[in-house]
Amino acid sequence: MKAHKILFCIVILTMFIFSGQNAFSTVHYLYFNDFSSYIGPEWSTSHEDGLTISTTPSGENFLGRDPLYGFQNETVRLALTGLPMNSILDVSFDLFIINSWDGNTPGEYGPDYWSFGVEGESPLLYTTFRNTSDQDYQSYPNNYYAENPYRTGAIENNTLGYTFYGDAVYNLNFNVAYTGNSVTLEFMASNLQTYSIEDESWGLDNVSVAVIPEPSTVMLLGAGLLSLCCFGKLRKKKCHKS
Cα 208 to chain center, whole Å? Predict the structure, then answer.
């Protein structure tokens, strides 16, 4: 096969792969909620007070349990149904860490744990966060018990308007495998100080879920296209010989 024919097949294959991925991710975009106006029955919490759309002092709506603050020691669940069978989800969201989170600090004030995962399975992330600026650490972006400086990985600091040790915003992203056609995602905190929600809380915003294209399927189809290019060239040579 001449070089320009090989190049042509490679270009076609590359275009197919990228167009296939774009089409797949667009068609199978599943869920988004910025909690600007509604929550939806897909959300629930283990706390008896339920869920509400909270509003930060700076005026930003998010998912919480108090008109101004977020959640405390509880599990918040997002139940998704009608999914493509046995696939992988791309899950991203903004996590609000509000007021005096103490990170890895042991004893009376901590550690302050937060985790994310699939119901019934080991967490994909089990970590701590810290807003206070003294000498102790937080574990994020690693699992507990790593030692990182406070607010490591935050995309915003003190933008939400809280004054008691401020606030931090983290954008988290996970690949979540599941079986069947449904999955329940769990967001959970534990060991926070419980005497007042004004002391330590957390919230969720801009929750997005999409299906990740299966590379094996896309590559298999692309390889088939490349084979057709090669087969067409070989067949043409055979026709000329005969």
Answer: 7
